Give the backbone structure.
Amino acid sequence: MKKAWWKESVVYQIYPRSYQDSNGDGIGDLQGIISRLPYLKWLGVDVIWLSPIYKSPNDDNGYDISDYQDIMTEFGTMEDFDKLLEEAHNQGLKIMLDLVVNHSSDEHKWFIESRKSIDNPYRDYYIWREGKDGKEPNNWGGSFGGSAWQYDEATNMYYLHTFSKKQPDLNWDNQVLRNEVFSMMTWWLDKGVDGFRMDVINMISKDTTFPDGNSEGRLYGDFTPYVMNGPHVHEYLQEMNEKVLSKYDVITVGEAPAVSVEDAKKYAGFDTKELNMVFQFEHMCVDEGDYGKWTKHPLDLVKLKQIFTKWQAGLDGIGWNSLYWNNHDQPRIVSRWGNDKNYHEKSAKMLGTCLHMLQGTPYIYQGEEIGMTNVDFTSIEQYRDIECLNQYDDFVTKIGMDKTEAFERIKKSSRDNARTPMQWNASSNAGFTIGNPWIEVNPNYVDINVEKQMEDKNSILYYYKNLISFRKANEIVVYGSYEPLLENDSNIFAYKRTLEDKQLYVLCNFTDKEVEIPFIGYEEDRSQLVIHNDTTWEKGKLQPYEARVYIVK
Ligand code: GLC
Ligand code: CA
């Protein structure tokens, strides 16, 4: 397989609002991130992905951008950004920006112009349609509740917003808009940024006949088939690659909900000249139910393994996987598929092992490296995220769900679980701020924090540091092929990687019980054990949440 630095890298995601506040206003900022670069260097990651840092009215915490070439007031200035980039580069760290171009903010100057009149030069930067019988152009629901269309009085028409009404969708069918985006990207790349994570990039090309979506059992119609992986998306990404990306040596990952392996072969194929990799969602959706992400069934491990195997085998030699358990949109993995009560440390380490030994580029979300957990809020007032607040409202007012049940659903799946401040130490507000944090700190910071784990070589933090350096020292982790083992076992996630005459075996117990290991074609040999999250070792048996990695030559 062809070698590439972005295949060998580990990416660390920062949600700047919640990482480190430097001036006491309770909001994380760029100077705060600068002060933590030595920590990231120590941890050993290669690339930092910053969630959006651009000018924004923060309807969706920066995923609604009002100026793509300026910095969010609360986060600092362009000088701060330049300093961050320079300092990061000095320390050998790369910076990847979040490119949010499926939509902008309604406060972006393009949109302010666009809504003025139908012949405004910016009109066609967005998606405007006439209403139908005095109603919205079709039945689509927005991702954050309500219709996906917003009526605008000035011209008596509707604009499309697949997210909140303050996030109007950009019209990628307009060449002038595409050129604007490409030149903005070029501007950042010329500044020296090392790549982009592209927000919902597989949604940029819509079916412009705008058919109604399936609304069975839902408040609104589902736009998925007409928006995700739309008619011209590959054309536009190839154009972006040709005009921009191909001129730089950068890392790119496209967030792509509802993407199949077949789609991914096009987006992230080695020869397709689009992106390096995509964030697929299949494994994240495995425990969804009737209310989508707001129902979480217990994990079906066999299904989860099937999904990973499909992606691992499907892309092997053809394209590249991203590997993630967590990000700013997902509840914390140790609370979700680990055990944050009785086996916090063990299960966090097991989950890290299971993911990092797969083929692909691993992404660590801030706090995952210390096993940060979901937050135990007791009132809806403590939540900040527009998605969960709107959803709670829909549950209670539109669906008539019992408030306690609605709250339980929010609590389990809210994105705010991932957005409570980074837990640095045991001082007040976890060392995140000396002020009033914009969202409450998880009270378990007194036990779970960076400082404490730095003092303990057996901590989750040290374990992650080791997973990262292990990858650097063993090519098989990056380039080895993948083969599933024990596919029908409902307790153990096991697989084998092979590179030339070497094999790497991974065994992970996903349960809180001791389990027998069925024969995997390898006679366990303790002297070949290279990663282990337990102090005791018994041949043929795994303790609760135990993880083992062997290298065999
Ligand atoms: C992506 C982001 C999410 C954001 C949405 C709209 O899914 O990860 O945080 O709300 O796009 O930009
Ligand atoms: Ca601040």
In short: The chain is about 30% helix and 15% strand.
